[in-house]
Amino acid sequence: MAKTPRNHSSRRPQGRLIGYARVSTDEQATEAQEMELRAAGCDTIIQEHGSGASRTRPALARLVREIGAGDTLVVVRLDRLARSVSHLLDVIEDLTAKGAHFRSLSDPIDTTTPQGMFSLQVLGAVAQLERALNSERTKAGIKAAKAKGRLPGNPGLREGRPETLAKMTAAQKAAYGVRLQSSANQWLPIVRRMRPDHTWDDISRVLRQRGLDWTPERLRRAVKWMVSEGMADKSLLRKSPPRPAEDRLMTLVAGIHSSNPELTLREIANQLERLHERTPRGGTKWAPSSVKNLIDRAKRSGLLAAPEHAGEE
């Protein structure tokens, strides 16, 4: 009796196959990559036009933020996705954190298979070795330069050459964009929910309650960059309407509650007293009922999405 063939494809995740096609300039076309991606089973394909030397890729960042658990990001070749091994590993780490996978059609990288994961570990080891070798070369270069009486570093920067300073500024802006995109899924949804009804002070306070270190000015600058790159709506930058003091307290209480929903009303009241926050009537002693009123208002305003409220005393 013939053996029933095994269904090897059943081992693959049942999510979507999402293709990512990138070319360096607007004059180039992605049709060739799209044909290969569709042949591999990708129904959705995201296109990107951007230099391979830059990590600032809004379409890729948006895809990684919005990809679902079980989905697989597919590229034709590794160089279409990442500019370096470290960049590739960073993207795959972000996908793994979302429960998603990665596959390259032309390379032995497929995080849905044991062989692909092994290849990824080899790449990680190569990246670590590369960083160590670069560090040793840098130290040796500095030592040799000092022995010859030369100053280490970029002479263009020391001399203030305009072209060197311009390149440095561009590199800093690119690095800033990469940092923002890598953490946007942690803070941008909260900003979208609260702006422009709430001030930057209110939002940064909520974020700090959740363990995210944001000042109002840094947060506003980050959102301004996201808007300029087309990754956020410009309405987020509209001026907030004047708000009474009680609304500020509502935002503060909502932030404390959302950072730890297990806190009782009395525990939240104690925190407010330690912060020297006055009650809506100007008192210094907080009652659990006052905290509950502010939490209920936060729910009605949409500031708190969770249905449950803080525990009773």
TrEMBL record:
SUPFAM superfamilies, sorted: Resolvase-like (SSF53041)
InterPro entries per UniProt: Recombinase_CS, Resolv_N, Resolvase-like_N_sf, SSR_resolvase
DNA-binding found in the keyword field: yes
All residue ranges annotated as the Resolvase/invertase-type recombinase catalytic domain in the record: 16-149
Active-site feature positions: S24 (o-(5'-phospho-dna)-serine intermediate)
Pfam families cross-referenced by the UniProt entry: Resolvase
Keywords of this entry: DNA integration, DNA recombination, DNA-binding, Plasmid
Signal peptide location: none
Full protein name: Recombinase family protein
Organism, scientific name: Pelagibacterium nitratireducens
